[in-house]
Amino acid sequence: VKSQPDSSDSLHSQKPMMYSLLFLAACANAEWAETRFENRFTYKVQLDNLSFRQPLGGIFVMVHRPDSTPLFRFNEKASPELAILAEDGNPQPLVDLFARAKGVKSSFSVAGPVLFGQSTNFTAEIPEGYVLTLATMAINTNDC
């Protein structure tokens, strides 16, 4: 003869599921709160080309968390997108690559060239705890 569990046993067996659902809801709300209420700061960035007769190509700009996918790793081959920037001065493939990367708030390009002795300016909104990464091509290099 099988006995039917009483209502208190049924409730007891549902507790782990209820706690799991509450935990998932709390995680979702924490993520929403982080994006909704994070402290953001807008910076005006001025890039001065102080090189000796070395123009700089288009500039790649990325706002990201420190633990996000890096632009490159030391002693590892560069991504095809970074190679395009280094060889052709075109930052757009990097912008496209990092636009969908985890931990990246924004990626964009600033038009070049920036001639020696000149400057370029841009603004970037950087949330608290995020960092700014820049990359460009030194145009007059001998690796072409």
From TrEMBL:
Database matches in InterPro entries: Spondin_N (IPR009465), Spondin_N_sf (IPR038678)
Domain of life: Eukaryota
Protein name per the record: Uncharacterized protein
Organism (species): Lotharella globosa
UniProt lineage: Eukaryota, Sar, Rhizaria, Cercozoa, Chlorarachniophyceae
